[in-house]
Specification:
3 helices; 20% helix
Length: 155
Amino acid sequence: MGSTNAEQQVLSLIEQGGSYAEAEVEKVFNALKPLPSPEFLIGSWNGGAFETGHPGSETLKKMRWAGKDFRGVDDVDPIIVFDDNDKRVWDEEWGNASLREMVFRGVTSTAMIYDNKPIFDHFRYVTEDLVMGAMDYPKYMAAGSTLYFYLARRK
């Protein structure tokens, strides 16, 4: 897939760090292309959140969020954290998840659906080794409030 302006903007946001207005990050996410298929995510990914003031960012910091592991479309560990020895481990409290294609903001792309929580993580393509995510948690977050994050494929 070729590079777009939105893809370059994601790379810049990650590189610069800092805080951003949620609307700014949302605009970039909405301009990204969909993933080619749910299978694209299979593998182990490191995670990071875009600081927009969303309360979920603080939750991820406190839990020492490391990323996500996708063994198959129906076999996902959605929350991997660092333990006291800085080893990546599955956080059982968050359960497992599966991947499906879903429409989000008018675009059909891959979504991760938590098995035991009303959470949908919607993904968009940045590069072969980087995706951007939008956590949709409508029953617990304010309407229109979305946690934006990214995943980098572990090599």
